[in-house]
Amino acid sequence: SHFLELEVAIKTSELRETRDYLNNLIRYANAPIIVWDPDKRITIFNKAFENLSGWTEQEMMGQSLDVLFPRKSRSDILQKIERTSKGEHWETVEIPILRKNGEIRVALWNSANIYEEDGKTLLSTIAQGQDITEREQAQGALKQSFEKLQKTLEGTVNALSLVVEIRDPYTAGHQRRVTRLACAIAKEMNLSKTKIEAIRVAGTLHDIGKIHIPAEILSNPSKSSEVEMNIVKTHSQVGYDILKTIESPWPVAKIVLQHHERMDGSGILMGSWDRIFSWKQGF
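Structure for PAS domain S-box protein, as requested:
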């Protein structure tokens, strides 16, 4: 009937408008969006993806997905994509994109499958990405800077340790033994690698303040006098004063200052810290 034909025409027009709206929404979205069919052929390739890849929509329509990926990682990426066709969806997965000019961009992707009305037959897969190349590069530069800082710090630690070793070989050997013992205890306590590294540095330098003590006192084989012992006791504070000006990710200077304090509140600094593990000076 005429009424039925009119209703069909209205529904068709509404569907066309909805389709055009969705197509424009995808086409001009700020994020790269791509859609592919079950055969991994590209069916939608929006403007943002053109900017990301350097390829045009006209060039990519109907093309296989694999042209978008670097040869080195192509096989692994296609396996991930194959899993999406079996129901897996991406919330955040990092996948590199090979640009037309050979440059590689890194992007984070999420995806979803679109099914026929039966809810089982796969119609297509849609994925949306975020270009994180600059962020990855910044993180890489930050990592290099941190590694350089670590090497600088390690060089400083070694130089200071060498000063002590030249002046007093006994103290140098003692520092190495304390370091090995402290790190072994830290590992048994399941402390993090960062904390163990802090302990290693502090152990290596804990007696650095002894460079302030006259050599004749350090090498005196007989029992030290009270005056000499009072001079020796200053080495924790001197070590702290030396190390406090050196930038470090750990409180090395404070550890050196407190390394003669004991859990019962006694120690060289007269019990100012009542919950500090003492270094076992007998080793």
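The longest helix spans residues 133-167.
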